[in-house]
């Protein structure tokens, strides 16, 4: 798959996930670039039929509320650059490593979410509920459970 087609598929996926029309995305890109993209220009971009300038990639990332590396994400087995095809592993590696001080798309949000979950799980009331749930599971799995014994006695 050509890199422009991979970017185009990702633009289409992100646009649809955000409930934007082709026209709305073109207008949002236009607010960043100073000139709107037509519906047809967005369609051409999504089909991989255009190369992108750095400014256009930045405008697309802002309009779609994502990062520039996220625009390059694909499941393709290889990406075709003008000089040669690049294996998927090498292509993914350039997207993952962004340098020490550069955030990787989604990772910061994931770390914040994990931290928030840890805070919620450390609350005393939740810890008590977890203990109660554990005891309930142990009682339910006990070999001579009370409910099973009672049902057996009434069935005789």
Secondary structure elements and their pairing?
Layout: H1 3-17, H2 22-33, H3 39-46, H4 54-63, H5 68-71, E1 78-80, E2 85-87, H6 88-96, H7 107-121, H8 124-141, H9 146-154
Task: Characterise the protein shown here.
It is a single chain. With 156 residues, this protein is mainly alpha-helical. It has nine helices and two strands; from the N terminus they run αααααββαααα. It has a two-stranded antiparallel ribbon with strand order 1-2. Helix 2 (22-33) crosses helix 3. The model is unreliable at 150-156 (pLDDT under 50).
**SSE run:** HHHHHEEHHHH
Shape: elongated
What CATH architecture label of the largest domain applies?
Orthogonal Bundle
Q: With helices defined by DSSP (H or I, 4 residues minimum), what is the helix count?
A: 9
Write out the CATH superfamily name of the largest domain. Answer: lambda repressor-like DNA-binding domains
Strand runs, count = 2
